[in-house]
Amino acid sequence: MAAESDSDGLDKGTPLRRGWTTGACATAATKSALGALLGDGFADPVTITLPGGQTPAFALCHEQTGDGFAAAGIIKDAGDDPDVTHGATIISTVRLLPPGQGIRFTAGEGVGKVTKPGLPLAVGEPAINPVPRQMMTEVIGELCGAHGRPADVEVTISVPGGEALAAKTWNPRLGIIGGLSILGTTGIVVPYSCSAWIHSIHRGIDVARAIGLDHVVGSTGDASERAARALLGLPDEAFIDMGDFVGGMLKYLRAKPVRQVTIAGGFGKLSKLAEGAMDLHSGRSQVNIEALAHLMTELGAAPETLAEARSCETAAQVLALARAHKIALANRVAELAGHRADAILGKGHLPVQLLITDRQGKIVGRNF
Questions:
Q1: Which of 43, 142, 175, 352 lies at a 20 to 30 A Cα distance from 293?
Q2: Long-range contacts of 316-324 (CB under 8 A, 24+ apart)
């Protein structure tokens, strides 16, 4: 999943505490460091204005000045979100450049660089996303303007330990090498937001298209992805960790099409897709045991087998029963799920391939 959520989300029960994106932390650190470099001292706490107008204040955990530079650091607080960058230190080191150089962003320790096309940054650029760059550009312009000097500044963002943290994110698959991305569009982390995952799905598709791939594979988890890799033999960039968000992937592919789409997942999740569910999370869609039993009847199940299927409590139990009676239930589910996916994508593509695995990752059904 992406390193941080950055959009409105809902949670059941007690409201969860929101936090701040790496981009917001980098902006606050840049403002404090540049203020010190220009002779104002380190602002601590330092207040910034987010794109939505909010004005959070950040405490510093690091201050440093040296020959021609100043650096400030902020510990990221992701609120109650299970964010891999929660507790990481975001450091901004600023230097004044000769007149006419403008603002330059560079990647320090633990911040990645872009190595593949398709992202909103050029290949070779530090993985500091456009909105954080704009936020930092604005605070630099304000401070430099207040001191009567042009905004010619080099900003180096670093995250100690960020390379290890990045291994837990989508960055390696997206071709962001060497560390984390500095992210955020609102500056606010919303706990358990779905939008961050869907955003990462979109960027994965963008990268695949940009390098010329015409076949992408969305998988619900590691086991189904391994099965699809072994069967299809496609490059790493073809594989999208869509999780439960099959609808988010398909709707983006409708707008940004490729020639062939494969969906790989467990029997239970893809039986929900066959019923029309576009979000396969257990809290937002349920397996229809009765529908699975009805399919078994269509495939020739005896009345006593139908009764046994209806008494099952899980999709896995229904699948085991069907396999014991040599009923090709998983293939039928794959066929129906493929029709649902085709309807979302619309015309102009090959029929969507469906690949169904059991809990051990063994392929038990397919429509191709």
A1: 352
A2: 316/267, 316/268, 316/358, 316/359, 318/289, 318/292, 318/293, 319/267, 319/358, 319/364, 321/296, 322/296, 323/364
